[in-house]
Design brief:
alpha+beta; BirA Bifunctional Protein, domain 2; 3-stranded antiparallel beta sheet
């Protein structure tokens, strides 16, 4: 029996103080982004193209349009934003910097509010990562920034046949150490920028290039509390290189990275409003 006051598991209810905190987060973010030249976009909640963004299509909430074409509720905003700007707005705008404040919805009833940022045609991840730092500073949140490079797990899978990307998704450290390769072991325990130069002396050239990109991003960030996580692998389909997460204890407040849609390389991030609301309300 479902009582009148019950809401579906995973859906969100904000009222009173929590609603005020949610609006405060959104205003702080939108003021900072607007001042940096970003314009706001609100995309349709229904989409024909969500399968391009979500690694596991079982997470999509699927329906059909009036012509019986399959579509989904918005489960991710990034690729839809880029596609709409490129394909639908086209020559009507030359704007490349966009942000959105809207929820994503995943099967069966998961609802997640986000503040998202996309800088189309930009390759320098620090350009948006430092904006995320500005937003958290204004909110008086002092989290940890974890910097990764998705190419490193992919290179390691190609080098060592016994490894799979699932090993990196689940951080199977024992399997990495069982390779009995000195530089792989040092890669597992790499955390701080001071450790990078020593590792550059012994890793293969392909790994060296990707570590240098991580080191450069560390140097460019305005945030002191930063660690490296070269063995981390994100589940999203479109991130292809540098990647970051904003973490406090066990909560992920934001994540973003460099990605490619068709021939266009861009950078962006999403702030997870619900996790921030819970922390700030407490």
């Amino acid at each position: 029996m479902i009582l009148e006051h019950e809401i579906p598991n995973g859906s969100k209810l904000y009222f009173g103080k929590s609603a005020k905190v949610k609006r405060h987060i959104e205003k702080v973010a939108s003021d900072i982004l607007d001042a940096d030249g970003f314009e706001e976009i609100v995309t349709p909640i229904f989409s024909y193209h969500q399968h391009l963004s979500i690694a596991n299509e079982k997470e999509l909430i699927k329906v059909n349009d009036e012509m019986n074409n399959s579509l989904s509720l918005r489960a991710d905003s990034t690729i839809d934003v880029v596609r709409i700007i490129q394909k639908r707005l086209g020559t009507n705008t030359e704007q490349k910097k966009w942000f959105y404040i809207q929820p994503v919805l995943r099967y069966p009833t998961e609802e997640q509010y986000q503040v998202g940022v996309e800088f189309m045609g930009e390759k320098n991840l620090s350009s948006v990562m430092n904006l995320a730092v500005d937003i958290f500073d204004k909110l008086e949140i002092k989290p940890l920034i974890q910097i990764s490079n998705i190419r490193i797990p992919k290179i390691l899978v190609n080098m060592f046949g016994e490894l799979t990307l699932d090993d990196f998704r689940h951080l199977n450290i024992e399997k990495f150490l069982n390779l009995k390769v000195e530089w792989v072991e040092k890669l597992v325990y790499l955390q701080h920028i001071e450790q990078v130069d020593e590792l550059l002396e012994i890793v293969p050239q392909a790994i060296k290039q990707e570590l240098l990109k991580m080191k450069e991003l560390c140097i460019e960030t305005k945030f002191d509390n930063t660690v490296l996580a070269p063995m981390y692998y994100a589940k999203m389909l479109y991130y292809d290189e540098l990647f970051f997460r904003v973490i406090d204890k066990n909560e992920v407040y934001a994540r973003g990275g460099r990605y490619k849609n068709e021939d266009l390389t861009s950078v962006g991030f999403a702030i997870y409003t619900d996790a921030l609301c819970e922390t700030l309300t407490k």
